[in-house]
Amino acid sequence: MSLRELKGVLLLLMAIGAAAYFGGGTTFGSFNAETSNVGSAIASGTLTMSDQVNAGTACLSAGGTPQNNVNPACAAVLALTNVAPGVYGGVAQVTVQNTGSIDASKLYFWAPQVNATLNGALTNGNAVTALTVTPLEGTVTSGDALVVSFGTQTQTFTANAAASGGATSISVTSLAANFSYPIGTSVSDTSSDTTANNTDCYDAKTTTPGTALATKGTDLNFNPVTGNPFCGAALIFVQETTGGNHYCWLGKGSSPENASGMCSAPISVNLSSALTTGGPITSLPVTALNGNVASGDSIVVVSGSNTQTFAASANAFFGATAITVTSATPNFAYPTTSTVTDSTTLSVALNPDTTDTITNFDTAHNTIGKIQLFPLTGNGTINNTATVELSHFNTGTFSRIFQIGVYLPAPAGINQNGLQGLQSTFGITWHIDQ
Amino acid sequence: MHAFHYHNVRASAGRTSSTWRLKKILASLIAIGALSTVTVTGTFALLTSQETNARSAAASGTLTFSNTIGTGTACLSYNGPANPGNVNTACGALITSSTQNYPGIAITPVKVTIANNGSLDGVALSVYMPSCTVAATPGAPSPGGGNPCAAGGAQFSIQETNSAGVATACRYPSGPVTCVFSANTLQLFAANANTVTSALNLGSGPAHGQSRYFLIGLDLPPTAGNALQGEEAVFALTWHLST
Questions:
Q1: Does residue B234 carry a pLDDT above 90?
Q2: Which sequence spans correspond to the domains of chain A?
Q3: Whole-angstrom Cα distance, residue A259 to residue A266?
Q4: Is B57 part of a structural domain of the chain?
Q5: How close are the terminal C-alpha atoms of chain A, in Å?
Q6: Percent over 70 (pLDDT), chain A
Q7: Closest CA to A289 of A308, A271, A301, A313
């Protein structure tokens, strides 16, 4: 098309436009009709979650200071004191719930990286040479990348000196803040969780005794914390108990998965009613189990100097109030104060275990090795093709329940004095995706 | 060769045509679509929610104890060197050579208090004698050449009491509640309870914050001959507590 032809076309279009503008009223027919659909709207849903430790207050993801639907400061799961090797440690129940309106297609848990939150605000444009933080969970190594996050803002600093677990300041290479990060902003060491020395779990000597006036960790000279030895010895397990189904997600019993879905979780309970010597019994009445019993395990009942070992003849899971045993007559009238333990779980399954430690959880199941929590379909079985792993609030399975426990094993013939008076501190992260 | 020519001709002719431009646009769209398909998880934002249960803690207790002779200063298990830890080999002697011993006349028993000052209960207390060796009594003019650690030598006992000093059990030699000296007992104890694995089992406890009390008895038998004059038995007693 030549320039001349183009000009002709444009002039024609102008003429048509002018006619339409000025002559419109008489150009169209006199009959017409019109409707308008007004007030259309589109509203987004929500994907939020909560977690609740035992009967505590539910911690909301949306309630976190960082304002990015990430709450880095939910309650501790466990606070175990005066732990001894070979003795029942403790367990806590965590309920994870979808509090939003959108189904979560994925539910994960993993070991967090070394982390803290800002305890001193940063000012946009000001040079930062140190991050003032809440007691650091884990150890920072010089050169580590420290990611500071608040809302959609994020900035990476570089540590220029080591910072021990519990430290409240991290020295960083000077850098101007790109945002005014407030107190409560999350801080994560993305270089961490690679070795026993830089895990989220860290050891420190106890500064208060396990019992009144007793010795404490700082009194002792044979319990160094280098390499976080208590984190490396203490065993951890996570067993799901949602809807009465069981699945061992972490710990002894998870790899390979126990056929019954039970972790090797020790028990320490009392008799719920006294035994009599009048005849054989086939069931031990106990307070709600705080662990599992596998069929065939040896169940030891102790009262003072009296002791008797029964053989479990069926599995019993968390919460059960009876242990089925092979018929036997009690050798003593055991009162309700008698303790009941599972010696098989302790001596056979857990005491030799050096694999299922908190350290290994941190290094193997951090943000890279996260554990996906497929829905349970029965004891020890899951649906790994399900499209929803945590339904939106108030429908389907919108809550899932987990038992998390720690046990310090007593390996035969090993002097564990180096673990006296130490405290391991660690975290666990729960995450859902749309 | 033919293909090479064909390709060149087609390219040189097509690059100036609107069809070629359209093809380029479509090819770009295909590439973008393919790229977005491949990188979809990293390209598009999803709703996520996350929370961390921070600062769970598990703290171990302590198992330490003290050993006090009479009314002396408590010797602490954890005041020894760091390696091996919780072992103190420098606690005071029960009795010294300044305390002379005569046949048939027992010395005053030495009170030893074992106090659990840790936070954990002691499950097993035991005691053993790593060695017993003979030496000339310092200052003795003419040692007799005998051996109080050997058969026919000194007699030895471990009496447990309550805090008031009342006998509760004779731990060595075995017998009634109140210990009675018998022949060769120092030699036998040193021979049979000389390592932690062969130690004399003293039973359970003390629990944390609790103490146990022992009287260590020594005696030369009434039948001791002159060979034991000017001789001394040098020995250690090691107390061991475990969970």
A1: yes
A2: 49-113+196-260+353-433, 115-189, 268-350
A3: 18
A4: no
A5: 54
A6: 93
A7: A271
What value does the mean pLDDT take over residues A284-306?
A: 97
What domain range is B75 assigned to?
Answer: 65-242
List the alpha helices (DSSP H) in A216-320.
229-233
Query: Are residues A76 and B57, on separate chains, in Cβ contact within 8 Å?
Result: yes
CA atoms in the 13 A half-sphere facing the CB of A98: 28
Rounded to an integer, the average pLDDT of A157-180 is 98
CATH C-level class of A268-350: mainly beta
Mean of the per-residue pLDDT values of chain A: 93
In the three-class reduction of DSSP (H, G, I as helix; E, B as strand; rest coil), residue A280 is classed as: coil
| Chain A residues touching residue B243 (CB < 8 angstroms) | 84-87, 410
Identical fold, A115-189 and A268-350: yes
- Cβ contacts of B49 on chain A, cutoff 8 Å: 47-49, 61-62, 69-70, 100, 104, 431-432
Residues B105-161: pLDDT tens digits?
A: 888 999 999 999 999 999 999 999 999 999 998 888 888 999 999 999 999 999 999
Task: Dig out the tokens for A15 from the structure.
Answer: 């003429």
**CA A271 → CA A164, A277, A303, A405, B143, distances in Å?**
44, 15, 10, 22, 66
Of the candidates A53, A215, A429, the beta carbon closest to that of B117 is on A215
Residue range A210-233, pLDDT digits in tens: 999 999 999 999 999 999 999 999
| pLDDT given at position A189 | 98
pLDDT at residue B42 tops 80: no
Angle at A254 between CA A253 and CA A256, to 5 degrees: 90
Give Cβ neighbours of residue A85 (< 8 Å, ≥ 6 apart). A408, A409, A410, A416, A419, B243
The A residues from 202 to 261 touching B (CB cutoff 8 Å) are 206, 209-217, 219-223, 230, 234
CATH says A115-189 is which class?
Answer: mainly beta
> For position B104, what pLDDT does the model report?
80
Tell me whether residue B159 is in a domain: yes
Assess whether pLDDT exceeds 60 at residue A27: no
Is the distance from CB of A78 to CB of A61 less than 8 angstroms?
Answer: no
